[in-house]
């Protein structure tokens, strides 16, 4: 078959994700810059309370970013050297790096090939006497099978740390993500549902986790009289374990607060684009549109098309490059984590999670963000349908 020279179908490159910052956001940040507190000020608690209220959790603790928040959650869960933590391979590396930070060993359980989330039956097979926790990821925004995972955790006395970096605003059986697991992490990186520049949060209903997380993100220091070994005077504080400076600033927090007030609008816009994509692609025999489990209602961080490569005269790479050449900013989420060189050096090998490896070979992430225009959406649909119909067998 003749190789085609794909030409741009639009003048500007359309990215796969982009934040939406408006004048109110800028004003809120400016106000904080002119205030007394750039960090450790009142906006921190205000953002934490707003997130806790939004997801329906008792407590929320903010962090400098989502990765730091995951580190804090693993620390609070008591992950130590030699402990095993069950992780999904189909995620960003931070979801299991946090286990390594604590000296633990990530154990990868394969994904369900319909939802692309960690399969509870695979999790159960991986539980041993050394297992301490499970870290499910709500991949693309679709919540993992949380009831099954929580039941396994209760049966085997494990902690569930949900990576909700994709799923702020998603629901599982009518409940908001962030109110269900022992601890849930959210990220406010600019590609996520709302942004604070960099930023992260853990929500929990357990007071003990809450207190540990607060102390961990500030050097392991406490001033709380009920925890001090002694008290020399009003200046006195103690560093009781090795924590970090993982604090969010008030500048980040106020941006987060302002963004959170618009989250329903952002999610509605994402859902409308997803509907358009599904309508355009679901009848194309060479493509699989994202399956949604009836227990879930996704806030749609990512829209991932799976290619039926046996029906196409091209592999994923050629299709990816064809779409990029047309100025459509497609992406791939993700290389299975254990195939990264750092993990392979730790001893993880190809073949560990066959469903995840096959998934990786066949996926393309399409642009999806609330500020996309009607023309942007049409460009993506035109490029994808044109490319696939040309390359179909
Ligand atoms: C974005 C992301 C993180 C990390 O969040 P940061 O705020 O960028 O540190 C962790 N897990 C997943 C699945 C993510 O997408």
From TrEMBL:
The keyword Lyase belongs to this UniProt entry's keyword annotation: no
Modified positions (N6-(pyridoxal phosphate)lysine) in chain numbering: 192
Keywords carried by this UniProt record: Pyridoxal phosphate
Pfam families the UniProt entry points to: DegT_DnrJ_EryC1
InterPro entries membership: DegT/StrS_aminotransferase, PseC, PyrdxlP-dep_Trfase, PyrdxlP-dep_Trfase_major, PyrdxlP-dep_Trfase_small
Gene3D superfamilies according to UniProt: Aspartate Aminotransferase, domain 1, Type I PLP-dependent aspartate aminotransferase-like (Major domain)
GO molecular function per UniProt: pyridoxal phosphate binding; transaminase activity
Top-rank taxon: Bacteria
Chaperone recorded as keyword: no
GO annotation (BP), single: polysaccharide biosynthetic process
Catalytic residues, chain numbering: 192 (proton acceptor)
Family designation: Belongs to the DegT/DnrJ/EryC1 family.
Alphabetized PANTHER family for the sequence: DTDP-4-AMINO-4,6-DIDEOXYGALACTOSE TRANSAMINASE, TRANSAMINASE
UniProt protein name: UDP-4-amino-4, 6-dideoxy-N-acetyl-beta-L-altrosamine transaminase
Species, as recorded: Sporolactobacillus putidus
């Amino acid at each position: 078959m003749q190789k085609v020279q794909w030409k741009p179908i639009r003048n500007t490159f359309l990215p796969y994700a982009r934040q939406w910052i408006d004048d109110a956001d800028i004003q809120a940040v400016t106000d904080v810059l002119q205030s007394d507190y750039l960090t450790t000020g009142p906006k921190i608690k205000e953002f934490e309370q707003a997130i806790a209220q939004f997801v329906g959790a008792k407590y929320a603790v903010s962090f400098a970013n989502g990765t730091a928040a995951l580190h804090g959650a693993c620390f609070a869960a008591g992950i130590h050297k030699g402990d095993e933590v069950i992780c999904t391979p189909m995620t960003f590396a931070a979801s299991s790096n946090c286990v390594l930070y604590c000296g633990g060993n990530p154990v990868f359980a394969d994904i369900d090939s319909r939802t692309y989330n960690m399969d509870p039956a695979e999790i159960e097979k991986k539980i041993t006497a050394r297992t301490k926790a499970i870290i499910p990821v709500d991949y693309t925004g679709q919540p993992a099978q949380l009831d099954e995972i929580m039941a396994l955790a209760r049966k085997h006395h494990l902690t569930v740390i949900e990576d909700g970096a994709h799923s702020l605003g998603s629901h599982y059986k009518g409940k908001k993500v962030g109110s269900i697991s022992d601890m849930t992490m959210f990220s406010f990186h600019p590609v996520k549902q709302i942004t604070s520049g960099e930023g992260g949060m853990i929500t929990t209903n357990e007071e003990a986790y809450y207190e540990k997380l607060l102390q961990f993100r500030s050097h392991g220091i406490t001033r709380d009289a009920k925890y001090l070994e002694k008290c020399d005077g009003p200046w006195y504080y103690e560093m009781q374990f090795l924590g970090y400076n993982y604090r969010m600033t008030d500048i980040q927090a106020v941006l987060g607060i302002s963004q959170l007030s618009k989250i329903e609008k952002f999610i509605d816009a994402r859902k409308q684009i997803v509907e358009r994509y599904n309508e355009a692609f679901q009848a194309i025999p060479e493509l699989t549109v994202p399956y949604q489990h009836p227990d879930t209602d996704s806030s749609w961080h990512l829209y991932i098309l799976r290619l039926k490569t046996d029906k196409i005269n091209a592999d994923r790479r050629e299709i990816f490059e064809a779409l990029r050449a047309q100025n459509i900013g497609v992406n791939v989420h993700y290389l299975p984590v254990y195939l990264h060189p750092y993990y392979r050096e730790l001893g993880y090998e190809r073949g560990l999670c066959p469903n995840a490896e096959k998934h990786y070979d066949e996926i393309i992430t399409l642009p999806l963000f609330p500020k996309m225009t009607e023309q942007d959406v049409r460009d993506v649909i035109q490029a994808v349908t044109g490319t696939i119909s040309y390359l179909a067998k």
